[in-house]
TrEMBL record:
SUPFAM superfamilies: Nucleotidylyl transferase. It comes from Comamonas terrae. ATP binds at K276. GO terms for molecular function: ligase activity. L-glutamate binds at R13, F14, A15, P16, S17, E49, Y217, R235. Residues 13-118, 202-284 form the Glutamyl/glutaminyl-tRNA synthetase class Ib catalytic domain. Its EC number is 6.1.1.-. Its cofactor is Zn(2+). Belongs to the class-I aminoacyl-tRNA synthetase family. GluQ subfamily. Zn(2+) binds at C105, C107, Y131, C135. Catalyzes the tRNA-independent activation of glutamate in presence of ATP and the subsequent transfer of glutamate onto a tRNA(Asp). Glutamate is transferred on the 2-amino-5-(4,5-dihydroxy-2-cyclopenten-1-yl) moiety of the queuosine in the wobble position of the QUC anticodon. This is Glutamyl-Q tRNA(Asp) synthetase. Keywords: Aminoacyl-tRNA synthetase, ATP-binding, Ligase, Metal-binding, Nucleotide-binding, Protein biosynthesis, Zinc. A motif ('KMSKS' region) lies at residues 273-277.
């Protein structure tokens, strides 16, 4: 019996960055997002997140689309490229500026490093140091280099009730903790369970538009998800810590809050996440069914029966199992 009720209004997406072809880890995320959309009777979209041109490889977007097609994963609507959507991001930033929830920042990396050192915050691998608020109250004669989200101003304007911190309505149980700070965001991950992060202490006011003029990932992804009507985000677990910043922006831009499911990561022998940054090879699609079966195993899905010997049959097999193992 199906454990997932059909949700005709469901819209999910897979949003790869064209910094190289899909590897085994990104195929896991693609398959999971596709299965979740199909299991809910919803729509699955593909969005190419080419917002950072210096990191993009020529032709990687088309190669990713070819890889997805070889695996039977086709977008239900025309593919969208972020590089063609600058006007939407500019409009969102202007809205935040008008609402006094964004401000210019003149800090260089050297400036920030000096402040962090004075605060005793030395650089640690994989540890993000919070923005120290240097330009929060003005540029002090410096030229503007970037734009930041005024997290402190947001909190001051909308101080949370002690029993209701910033977060999604599903967080009632967690939000009863009166010891939570004003900057804490709570949300429910469909796989990982209750999550929380003190954004003010962990990240501080975060960048919306970079010093080089490029749009920050946090703003672009929130604007795109809102404009495309994304109701459910299924993506790799490494993006979990981005979620609270995106929830804050969704609230500030008056956008609906999607549901989140973060999938297991594929790791290398040393425990590091398999990634393009670490030289992950392109997924071997000489046998698409074998590659998909390996990806499905990472999602705790069984190998398809002998009767499901084609990619379409295997995908249908996994959709049925996805319905059974997910508890929405």
């Amino acid at each position: 019996m199906s454990a997932i009720p059909l949700r005709p209004g469901y819209t999910g997406r897979f949003a790869p960055s064209p910094t190289g072809p899909l590897h085994a880890g990104s195929l896991v995320a693609a398959l999971a997002s596709w299965l979740d959309a199909r299991a809910h009777g919803g729509t699955w979209l593909v969005r190419i997140e080419d917002i950072d041109p210096p990191r993009c490889q020529p032709g990687a977007d088309q190669e990713i689309l070819r890889q997805l097609a070889a695996c039977g994963l086709h977008s239900d609507a025309p593919v969208v490229w972020q590089s063609r959507r600058h006007a939407l991001y500019a409009q969102a930033l202007e809205q935040l500026v008008q609402d006094r929830l964004a401000y210019p920042c003149g800090c260089t990396r050297k400036d920030l490093e000096a402040v962090w050192q004075a605060m005793g915050l030395a650089h640690e691998r994989h540890v993000e140091r919070p923005y120290p608020g240097t330009c929060r109250n003005g540029l002090h004669g410096k030229p503007a280099r970037a734009w930041r989200f005024a997290l402190q101003r947001w909190i001051d304007r909308y101080p949370p009730d002690p029993a209701q911190t910033l977060g999604t309505p599903a967080q009632a149980a967690m939000n009863n903790d009166e010891t939570m700070s004003a900057g804490r965001v709570c949300w429910q991950d469909r796989r990982l369970g209750p999550q929380q992060q003190d954004v003010l202490a962990t990240v501080g006011d975060f960048v919306l538009r970079r010093a080089d003029g490029l749009w920050a990932y946090q703003l672009a992804v929130v604007v795109d998800d809102g404009e495309q009507g994304i109701t459910d985000i299924v993506r790799g677990e490494d993006l979990t810590d981005n979620t609270p910043r995106q929830i804050l922006l969704q609230q500030a831009l008056h956008l609906p809050l999607p549901r989140y499911l973060h999938t297991p990561l594929v790791r290398m022998a040393n425990g590091e996440k398999l990634s393009k940054q670490h030289g992950a090879p392109a997924v071997d699609l000489s046998n698409p069914l074998a590659a998909l079966t390996q990806a499905a195993a990472c999602l705790d899905l069984p190998a398809p029966h002998h009767s499901a010997s084609t990619v379409p049959d295997a995908l249908a097999f996994w959709v049925r199992h996805w319905r059974e193992i997910q508890r929405d």
